[in-house]
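Below is a filled-in request sheet from our internal design queue. Each sheet records the structural input a requester submitted and the sequence that came back. We keep these sheets so that new team members can see what a complete request looks like end to end.

REQUESTER: design group, bay 2
PRIORITY: normal
MODE: inverse folding
CHAIN LENGTH: 128
BACKBONE (tokenized):
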């Protein structure tokens, strides 16, 4: 007995993603594709920082967070998240050694991401 092909098979999947969270996630994925480690190294070199594996661990954490959550409301919020994520290595002090102009502002620039609003606090760097 011959089976009939479904309409989806015949015409292709024409479904439209109507989930706003999914659409925003997809948009952030596209934004993240326009970055590479060489760009990060170039920006870092201009700022007098030589990127190492620990730097890229923080940068990747920032990029992963952005992909899943989008922009944060404030730099302080992201600073707290980083402090907790890297508490075993020394938290804010560890991050400050890696990113002398602030793990949030400098880290976000190196990661090719938008610097959050209200990032003027000395604890996480000054937005430019």
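RETURNED SEQUENCE:
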């Amino acid at each position: 007995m011959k089976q009939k092909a479904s309409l989806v098979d015949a015409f292709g999947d024409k479904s439209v993603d109507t989930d706003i969270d999914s659409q925003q996630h997809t948009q952030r994925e596209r934004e993240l594709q326009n970055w590479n480690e060489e760009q990060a190294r170039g920006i870092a070199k201009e700022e007098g920082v030589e990127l190492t594996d620990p730097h890229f661990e923080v940068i990747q954490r920032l990029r992963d967070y952005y992909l899943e959550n989008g922009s944060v409301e404030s730099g302080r919020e992201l600073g707290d998240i980083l402090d907790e994520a890297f508490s075993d290595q020394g938290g804010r002090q560890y991050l400050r050694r890696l990113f002398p102009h602030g793990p949030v502002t400098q880290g976000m620039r190196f990661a090719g991401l938008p610097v959050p609003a209200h990032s003027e606090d000395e604890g996480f760097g000054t937005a430019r």
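SHEET NOTES:
- The two ends are 69 Å apart (CA to CA).
- The longest helix spans residues 53-69.
FILED BY: M.R.
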